[in-house]
Each structure stands twice: as structure tokens, then as C-alpha cells.
Amino acid sequence: METTNLGKSIREIFDGQYKFIVPLYQRNFAWRQEQIERLLQDVYEAYKENMSGNYFIGSLVVLKRSNGDFEVIDGQQRLTTMSLITKIMGINDDPRLYYDSRPEVEDFFRIFYKSEKAECNIDYPQTFHLKNAIEYIKKAKLDAKENDKDIDTVENDFKTYFANNVILILVEVPQDIDVASYFEIMNNRGEQLQKHEILKSLMMSKLKDANQRTKFARIWDACSQMDIPIQKSFKSGDKNYYFGNTYDGFIFPKLAESPVPSSEIKPLNEGHFDGFTIEEIIEKDKDVEASGKDPIDDEEYESESQYKSIIDFPNFLMHVFRSMFPDKEIPLNEKFLLSTYKEIEKSIDEEACIKFSKDFISKLFFFRTVFDRYIVKTTDAPNAEDGEKWALIKPKKNEKSWDYISTFEDNYQQKRTIKALSMLQVTFRTRIYKNWLYEILKWFDDKKTIDVSYEDYVKKIDEIILSNYISLKYEPLDSHISLTKDNSYSLGRNTPHFLFNFIDYLYWVDDKKGLKDFEFKYWNSVEHHMAREWAERNNIEGKDDFIDNLGNLCLISKNANSRLSDRDVKEKVETFGNGNLGANRQIMYNETKNDDGTYSWTKDKIKSHYNDLLYLLSKSADILKHN
Question: 460-514: per-residue pLDDT in tens?
Fold first, then answer.
């Protein structure tokens, strides 16, 4: 292990004495504009302060392979950024950085380094961050108070400073080091690698064949991009072979010496395809990419997805773990990601570990495909109250193009499914312990298909919803019985948010009140329609008996609650009555309006609305019944 002269200038790093390899277990390049511009600005400020001094930008940890190449253990994001900058600035014109078994990235760098203008126009999902990074570097404004020069036109002395005075600490680890253990140590110290990246390396280390590791990494990387529909993470030829002719199935085609014609591949909803398991795929020598090109060109990949996932990748992985060991108490919390794997690894032998890695990537791929098609996500909607709306989509390809369409073609079926799923999501919003999502994924796993009917699916979702409802065990109050806090459900701000969302969902499904459509949002504040402060200020008699009653409550956003505060009900209805209101809130606002144009909300109206809610809840199973 080299212990002297660890400091290497950027020129020394890229002068040809080193060939750096980014291994498969490392994630793709992911630096964004803020990180790139911050690095450039820091270097420029150091240059302006002392043109002859050195500026240290961090460490680069490498492992020297037997062939003399240097495997990048830590620091690849920084190294990749430096590789782009040195080409753009004319410091280096030859590639020094390579990626194991990632032909898309290799193509990108080959074209980039051959280009006199330091550009590359190819579009792969694996390289769009690289393409964006080039633009960020070229357009970065350095020390804007003194000059407005782009990075490709800065003075020669700054280029010289960048090449000779910007220093990386190059640390070469011993060749006999346990790389997986090193990752864990780095993670415990809060370094760059994330838990799911460590898990990826641990599982890949069990696969002895390079071809197996390549395919494992490709599928893992595609699954990890939770905000990008998974079909977009594969090139067009691969889409056919993983998802069928119309891209909306889930199949594992045979990787034979003579590729299977795409015309022979059918998605699951067009008949059974006698495909192969993921284990059989990763055993093959041929890559799926060699099997032919789809005649439809890939679309241009945007730098950012327009969709946002309701769960992150590490927590999604915990659902895969639990599904593989349903009898174990595996928590749905990414905090236990590595410890869960370690416990499994200790309990099985080496051959079983190899099989487990293959089974895990297969289950992960299946779950991600199900997730994209049958679980809601949010998408940009500038006219919505929070700038987003719910989406439920699947891919659809025809002879000339492909795009994403509604998962269910029938409008009511699509809206009903979105309502049910979004109701669960806004209630159980955290990314950890998302048990309702696990129940859905496990349901698909038990069926072993991605092709299910609307009737079966919405019935399953409604079963999950009903299982979370705890009966209030109250009876409607007759006209001669006075409403009090002791004979009614009166928890005020302690009322479970699930109950409010459940009521809104039941009203929407029942569809008997002539209500406007609405979208479930992350409403998280319990609103008293008759405000306690207003009731006290107006000396409302017996207010303590009904102010916290369920019939006087609705769920709104915290921002709206702070604006409503102790307002009169008339002002509340006039101010917010035309917005995106849940069904319960709409009904309360409608009942606040009197026939003569005045507004009132009284104890009697609260009691009447409360009785209606009890009746609605008592009929919940019938309302959600499925024939």
C-alpha cells in the first residue's frame, strides 16, 4: 500500500499513468447542477485567493487489480466530474475512466472524448445525468461579481491552476482487503456510500461469473430509479425482451445463441410465454442487448422524471426481504437493510447465498414492475393546489410510437383505483412501515402475474382499507336525545386522520350527495368548523358538549387551518368553498348555507351531520361490496 506522495494533481490523475475502473456495484453518475457548480466555484475562489497555493478537493480510494487497473472504491462521483471538466477545459483529451460492463456509459465517453467541442448527443437513461453535467459545467458562472465567463472560456492561468494545483488524495487500499467490509466501515462513518449500494455489492460478491454480475447490476440499477418508470431504464431492444411487444407485460425471454424474434414474444395479457427465470438469464453468456433492436427509436430522456414515487428505493428493498421470508419479523424500515441481509447470510451456506442473490433480484424486478403499473405516484400539475396530481399509468406501444396511458381504460375504474390508493397513501404517508403497500405487493406475488382485473384489484385494496377501520360503536342519536361529549364520538384534534379519509372515500364511492370530484391530498390538520375560539367569543351555550364532535370536524392542510383559525363559518365557506375539498368538508359547507342566503352552523346541524356519518360508516362494508 502506497503511503507517500498521496496528493495527486488533476494533471497527474489524468496523464495516463492510471486507468480507473468504476465497478458494477457502484451506482451511476448522479451529481446534479448544485454539486457541480459548488465544486467549480470553490476551486475558482481558491484560485483567486492564492494562484500558487494548492486546493484539496477530497480523497479517491482505489484498489489495484491484478491487471494494473485501479478499481474506484470511493470518490467516483467526484472523479467522473473531474474527467468531464478536464476534457471541456482542454487539460486532457483521452479517456482515463471506464465503467465495468456498462456499454451505454462507455459509448457516451468514447463519443464525448472524440468530440472537438466536448459534447455527446446520444440519449440513454443511464447517461442523462452525464449529458446534463456537461451543460452545467459549460454554463457555470464563476465569481459572477468579477466576470461572467463560462467554464470553457476562462483564462489560461485558471486552467493551469486547475490542472496543477487542484489536488486529490489518492489512497490505494491493500489488494487483500475485504471490499464489502470496507464499504460497511465507510458507511458507519457516514461516508458517501448508501446502505442499498453496500447491499448491492454484498449480493453481487456472491456471483462468481462476470456476466451474472453484469445482469444483476443492470436490473438493480433500473429498479433503483424509483422516480423513472422502469421501462425507460432499458434500451428499446431490452424493453421487448423484458416487457413484451407492447412493453406492458413482464417476461424473461431466453437468451439463446439465435435470438428469439420479437414477433414471437407475447406479453402476459396476450397469452402465456414460455420464458426463463432470472436465474436462467444470468447464467447465459449472451447479453439481451445482442438480441436485436426495436424498430421504434427510444424517446429523448428528460433530465428529471415528471413522476415522484411514494417510497424510496432502500425502503422498497425491505418489502422484497419480507416477501421472501414472510414468517420472519422483518421490519419495513431501511434502517435494518444491512442487518437483515447479514442475518440471512449467516443462516445459509455459500450455495444458498448465490441462489438468494438470484432470487432477490428476480423478486425485486417483479415488484418494481408491479409497483409502476398498479401503485399511484404523483406527477406535476401546475393548476393543482400543491402543484401535483395522482397518476396511475402503464406503458403502451403501437407500431409507430409508445407512451404511458391509464392503467385501467375505463374512466370510473381508473378514478376509483386512484381514490383508494391515494386515500391509503395520504393516511399512511411515511416511507417506512408502509404495510398497505406490502400487502398489495405480496398479493401480486402470490398470484405470480402482473395481469389482474380491476374488480379483483380494487376488491383487494378495499379489503385493506376496511381492515384499518375500527368501528366507532356509537348509535345515531334520536331527536329527543341531546348531543353530549359523553354519548358521542368526540376526540377533537385526536381523531385519527384515517377516519376522515375513510369517510371521504365512502362518500365518493356511494355517490349520492351530488358532490364535486376531489383529489386526496396530504391534509394533516383537524379543523373545527365551528371554531372553539369563535364559540367562546360568541358565548355559545353548551359548546363543550359538541365542539369536538366528529360532526363538527374535517381534515384540511395546516396552512389552511392557520388561515381559517377562529373565523366565522360564513367566511370559511366563502373563502374556500370552491377549492379542492374532501367530500365531508363539501357536505359541511353545503349544510352551512341556508335557503335564505344566510350562513349558520349550529348544535342541531352538527348532531344531524354526526348521525349521517354514523349511518355512512355502519354501511361501509355494503358500500364497498364487490360482486
Answer: 999 999 999 999 999 999 999 999 999 999 999 999 999 999 999 999 999 988 8
How far apart CA 89 and CA 94 sit, in angstroms, is 13
Residues 206 and 140 in one domain: no
Within 8 A by CB and 6+ apart from 239, the residues are 231, 247, 294
> Among 315, 357, 355, which residue's Cα sits nearest to residue 337?
315
**Contact assessment for residue 364 and residue 320, using Cβ atoms and an 8 Å cutoff:** yes
Parallel/antiparallel/unpaired status of strands 402-406 and 97-99: unpaired
Residue 112's closest CA among 42, 10, 29? 29
Q: For strand 402-406 and strand 393-397, is the pairing parallel, antiparallel, or unpaired?
A: antiparallel
Number of continuous H segments (helices) and E segments (strands) in the chain: 24, 13
Residue type, 344: I
Do 253 and 292 have their domain in common?
yes
- Quote the CA–CA distance of 396 and 407 in Å, as a whole number: 10
Give the model's pLDDT for residue 518.
95
Q: What is the 8-class DSSP label of residue 172?
A: E
In terms of Cβ atoms closer than 10 Å to its own Cβ (0-12, 13-18, 19+), residue 297 is exposed
Residue 475 lies in a domain: no
Do 291 and 161 have their domain in common? no
Q: How far is CA 66 from CA 69, 71, 98, 177, in A?
A: 7, 10, 16, 13
Q: Residue 625 and residue 627: Cα distance in Å, rounded?
A: 7
The residue from 191, 219, 247 where one domain ends is 191
What stretches in the chain show pLDDT beneath 50?
Answer: 1-4, 144-148, 152-154, 190-191, 253-276, 281, 284-304, 627
CA atoms within 13 A on the CB side of 274: 1
Tell whether 142 and 1 lie within a shared domain. Answer: yes
Question: What are the tens digits of pLDDT across the range 518-568?
Answer: 999 999 999 999 999 999 999 999 999 999 999 999 999 877 766 666 789
Count the Cβ atoms, other than its own, within 10 Å of residue 174.
8
Q: What is the span of the domain harbouring residue 198?
A: 194-468
Contact 88, 10 (CB under 8 A): no
Asked if residue 183 and residue 200 are part of one domain, the reply reads no
Q: Provide the grid cell at 156.
A: 489560461
Choose among 283, 286, 291: nearest CA to 212: 283
Q: Quote the number of domains for the chain.
A: 3
